[in-house]
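Morning!

This is the sequence you dropped in the shared folder:
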Amino acid sequence: MKLLIVEDHQELNALLCRHLERIGFAVDAVSTGRKALHAIAMGDYDAMLLDLGLPDIDGMEVLEQCQKIGKRIPCILLTARDALESRLAGLNGGADDYVLKPFEMTELEARLRAVLRRAQAVHQQKLSLGNVAFETESRFATVNGKQVDLLRREAMLLEEMLKVWPRITVKERLEEHLYASRESVTLNAVEALVSRLRRKLREGGADVQIDTVRGIGYRMVLPVETGANA
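The structure's back. Tokens below.
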């Protein structure tokens, strides 16, 4: 899952990035409202952490602009404004929750996961194909009910591929969803990631495989599909 952090306090911004990446998220971080709107217009995010007191435009305006351009992103407000009116304005303006500064990272993480669970309520909590399954909340992957030990990005890759199946997973989409925009992605980074996931699924006894669609991306297929295409 990919998050957008909009926070102008440099140390807090960096702390949020480190913590959220450590627990399994890909993170983009900006420090102004205008940069946030640009990032939102250019990319897809599963949730946003939004400071209300930004140096250029107010966080409430960022929320308002998101609504206008049709980008509904689950949002937690980060605010030092403890007045009830400010909190109600944020919630009525499209935010899903708020956290008052200063806050504990464990509280923020719990609230973020709750917001993501609510956002995913209309989607599948368990993705599966053949004997491969992925729990979107626990982030566990299994083959025939037995857990497969996946690294963070390997789990993110499996989730993305199961979400779009039977469609092809476009390589450029994987680069966007699996890596933060500030990260330097080498030409073969995605290929290496796919190769590792392919090997771990095979070693775990998966009855699905990952095929390369030359020049486009990748697709998960069942053995019957492979045979039919032979």
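Headline: The chain has two domains: 2-120, 126-229.

More detail when I'm at my desk.
O.
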